[in-house]
């Protein structure tokens, strides 16, 4: 039976794993799908979403479902090993600066440039940047209060994280701060309206939408800044995390500034933690 046709009460780990395997190969040979099959990390993210949905259904219908079902879901949605680590998406500081400069040229009004600049300066996720309001910028204290990402099922809203900003970043944010209310979205983009066959013009500014809306502009940044062709905007986050580790910031602080866990940092960036601790230990070496 198709995965979608299996009654929830009869779902087993093997059915989930078989569906995941078909997803990974598209039901074709490795040669046919070498360039098309999703990366293990992509499959893992999808399995995380599936697990959350199945667990929610189990909770809602717990009286009618077998008690062992949560275990079947947990086993069936285990993560695949990921071999392509963050190191492949790291950008040196000079390329990060170039990308930010180019982003301001891609959008003459500076809206996209400010988005890329804040992504590079804070290492925040796109969803966090989209949630920023004018009042989150505390220019007199040289920082921005970054909203936490909406993960998990906690009913309470976590307090934002104070992330330091340099003077030049704050200066480039001034155009979007002046004359605006504190509860207005900090980062915006143009909405367009159709004025004729294949003709569009700017209509009004609106809050940032889904992440896919910026793909064309980011692709232009990659081209103009001569970044590796497969560079995604998330590389700015990876680079920010590694930058903090390389200069010796405590792992706990790096995790806090980037709204993630110490465990995640240690799992995905262990090589840079080793480099950082070795440099610190070298400073304590005694000479004779």
Automatic annotation (TrEMBL):
Xref: PROSITE patterns: TYR_RECOMBINASE (PS51898)
UniProt GO MF annotations: DNA binding
Domain Tyr recombinase: 90-282
Gene3D superfamilies with a match to the protein in the record: Intergrase catalytic core
The UniProt record lists the keyword Plastid: no
A single BP term in Gene Ontology: DNA integration
Keywords attached to this entry: DNA recombination
Protein name as it appears in the record: Tyr recombinase domain-containing protein
Organism listed in the record: marine sediment metagenome
């Amino acid at each position: 039976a198709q995965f979608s046709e299996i009654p929830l009460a009869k779902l087993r780990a093997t059915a989930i794993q078989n569906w995941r395997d078909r997803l990974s190969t598209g039901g074709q040979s490795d040669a046919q799908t070498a360039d098309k099959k999703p990366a293990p990390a992509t499959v893992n993210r999808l399995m995380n979403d599936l697990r959350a949905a199945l667990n929610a259904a189990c909770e809602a219908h717990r009286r009618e479902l077998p008690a062992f079902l949560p275990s079947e879901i947990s086993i069936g949605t285990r993560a695949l090993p990921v071999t392509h680590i963050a190191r492949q998406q790291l950008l040196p500081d000079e390329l990060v600066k170039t990308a930010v400069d180019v982003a301001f040229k891609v959008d003459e009004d500076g809206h996209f440039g400010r988005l890329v600049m804040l992504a590079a300066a804070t290492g925040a996720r796109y969803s966090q940047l989209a949630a920023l309001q004018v009042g989150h910028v505390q220019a007199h204290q040289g920082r921005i209060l970054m909203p936490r990402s909406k993960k998990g099922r906690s009913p309470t809203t976590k307090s934002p994280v104070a992330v330091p900003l340099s003077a030049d970043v704050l200066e480039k944010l001034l155009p979007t701060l002046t004359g605006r209310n504190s509860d207005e979205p900090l980062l915006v983009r143009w909405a367009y309206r159709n004025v004729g066959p294949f003709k569009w013009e700017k209509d009004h500014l609106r809050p940032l939408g889904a992440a896919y809306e910026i793909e064309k502009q980011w692709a232009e940044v990659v081209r103009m800044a001569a970044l590796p062709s497969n560079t995604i905007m998330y590389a700015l986050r990876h680079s920010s995390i590694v930058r903090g580790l390389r200069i010796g910031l405590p792992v706990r602080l790096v995790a806090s500034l980037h709204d993630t866990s110490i465990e995640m940092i240690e799992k995905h960036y262990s090589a840079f933690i080793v480099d950082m601790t070795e440099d610190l230990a070298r400073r304590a070496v005694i000479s004779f």
